[in-house]
Amino acid sequence: MRAVVQRVSRASVAVDGSVVGAIDEPGLVVLVGATHTDTEAQADKLAAKIWGLRILEGEASCSDVGAPLLVVSQFTLYADTRKGRRPSWSAAAPGEVAEPLVEEFVGALRRRGARVETGVFGAHMDVALAGDGPVTLIVEA
User: Fold this and answer.
1) Nearest Cα to 28, choosing from 1, 74, 60, 2?
2) Positions marked active-site
3) In sequence order, what are the residues at sequence separation of 6 or more whose Cβ sits closer than 8 angstroms to the Cβ of residue 102?
4) N-terminal to C-terminal alpha carbon distance within the chain
5) Given pLDDT bands bounded at 50, 70 and 90, which one contains residue 110?
6) Can you give the pTM of this predicted structure?
7) How confident is the model at residue 79 (pLDDT cuts 50, 70, 90)?
8) What count of Cα atoms within 13 Å lies in the side-chain half-sphere of residue 141?
9) Taking the domains of the chain in order of start, what are their residue ranges?
10) 99 alpha-carbon distance from chain centroid
11) CA–CA separation, 57 and 35 (whole Å)
């Protein structure tokens, strides 16, 4: 699994003009994608890594200070742009494989005590965020 993690001061995600998830305090936005060979164990490992990342103010982690996370599924993280101008999506897991893995990732965060907001899997989402830093990392498990 792969994630792009951004430190934010606030963020929200809307579907069809309605906010479905939001954080209004410093935390992390996590764009997460899965490929065909990913497993629930990798989803758990990725959740543990992100929960413990010391990238908040004062080198704190979400686990240290109880900061919220906004998780948004993003199959485009597995785009292959090496050839031509049109990305290939063949490395991205199909929805029936990816959705349970994203749900496991969110569940693993919540089992650790995380406050997690989410988007809607497979929906066209409007993601708004106020980057803090900026701090942006790519994390893989």
Assistant:
1) 60
2) 74-76
3) 32, 34, 43, 71, 73, 121
4) 5
5) very high
6) 0.96
7) very high
8) 22
9) 2-140
10) 13
11) 32
What is the per-residue DSSP string for the chain?
-EEEEEEEEEEEEEETTEEEEEE-SSEEEEEEE-BTT--HHHHHHHHHHHHH---BGGGB-HHHHT--EEEEE-GGGG-B-SSSSS-B-TTBPPHHHHHHHHHHHHHHHHHTT--EEE--TTS-EEEEEEEEEEEEEEEE-
Encoding tokens for residue 76? 């485009």
- What is the CA angle 53-78-68, rounded to 5? 30
Amino acid, res. 19: V
| Rg value, the chain, Cα | 14
CATH number of 2-140: 3.50.80.10
Confidence tier at 122 by pLDDT (50, 70, 90) = very high
pLDDT digits (tens, 9 = 90+) for 28-71: 999 999 999 999 999 999 999 999 999 999 999 999 999 999 99
